[in-house]
Batch of 2 targets.
Target 1
Amino acid sequence: MSDASYRDAIFSTPLDKVARFSFDEQVVSCFPDMIRRSVPGYGQILGMLGLIAQRHLRHGAHVYDLGCSLGAVGLALAGQLPKDAFTLTGVDLSPAMVQRARETLASECPDHAIEVVEGDIRHLDYQPSGMIVLNFTLQFLAPEDRDGVLKRLYDALEPGGVLVLSEKIKAGDEQDNAWLVERYHDFKRANGYSDMEISQKRTALENVLVPDTLDAHHQRLARAGFSRSLTWFQYLNFSSMIAFKEAEAHSPG
């Protein structure tokens, strides 16, 4: 991104009381560094989105990036697809994220039809779309809201459209899950986070980010109407899935 960002040091000093994590101005200012150092495989997921779109997105179709943060999905698609290949709407609940995303996208890909709106994805009036991306967004919704959101997204997708769902996950087996969490903390230490930072952020995210198992995600996608979904990427306890909406069958003429 062209705008300056800062090193993530939000939890680098001892806090008497750790507040609930929120996407405020402080987080926005260091978000690129935070993502790079704390979300394994994020760059690889973004890099594949253009290739997925090339295979599955009808030319000129609409794309949603839900929980768009600083507009990374729009940047990724604009970097791989011509300006007439798609239109995109990014949606985020954080006013600070929306403002920065608008500035970044206007600067980096001014010729692509990309807009960013402030809104709650649970209550959005969705337009027909060929591709919908939820990159590490569903995990921040209350578990009881997740089925309803995915059903609305299924209904908004055109026949033949795809949903890309990336999430922090948990393993169904307690021992396996502990191993994944421990290795994830090793990953963060290797990227310069201290034990105090890891501990304080984990406290801040408690009951804010609530992960599901991969099985739970695929079952939820099936309940929403998707007849087929698969896990195409996993790095430690971070994963990405794709769900397909069947194309309409043509009756014999």
Target 2
Amino acid sequence: MKNKRWISFLTLLMSSLFTISSALQVSAASENEQAPDEYDWIIGPASVSLDGKATLEVPESHSYLDKPNTQRSILNSDGKPNGNEIGSLTSNSEFGSWYVVFEYVKTGHIHDDDQNLSAEELLSSYIRGTEEDNRELDPEYRTYITGWEIEPAYDSTKHQLVYSLGFKNADQQAMVNYNVKLLTREGYITAILVTDTANFQQSRQAFEETVLNQLSINAGYTTRSTMLRLTKHPP
């Protein structure tokens, strides 16, 4: 694979090595409806705040947890929150079950300067990070990255960095960790979709329609040129 020149979003990629196993465990708990009354679920349709940074319209057949409930649910699922989580969304609609974690990282203003970095180098970094996490996890909670499903690409019109990693859980089930990073004035919000590989395309379409198209960056957090509403088609 040839080296590619990436926008200077190395900070975005490397500073948020998301603990895949944590999302996977919470996703499984949500699908199995483990003790849902332990958390303050917000059932759609509803309008919710992502820690004051953004607003999400939660559709029917979807359930939302705020920042403290999301971090507690990860801990209760034997996961390890990274401290950046600001909310999570679970889908139990007729179109399938999937799970999304929202994170916010304040990095300061990010410039669009070029840097040399290959997808192979990025993938190796993710694999090393996951291997380090696995050393602290029981075997049944370990995950193993299998490669890129979608290599990192930056959309300058939407101010979004998109990439997707394939991985397997301890039972060798093929899963996908799909990341969309939305630039803000002083950092970025990441929406992380976790679903099984077999239903990835269907879940991705539902994720884009019911999450990305329903998420608005709040005033004061938008970039200078980002539209307040991050939709596929300009209003």
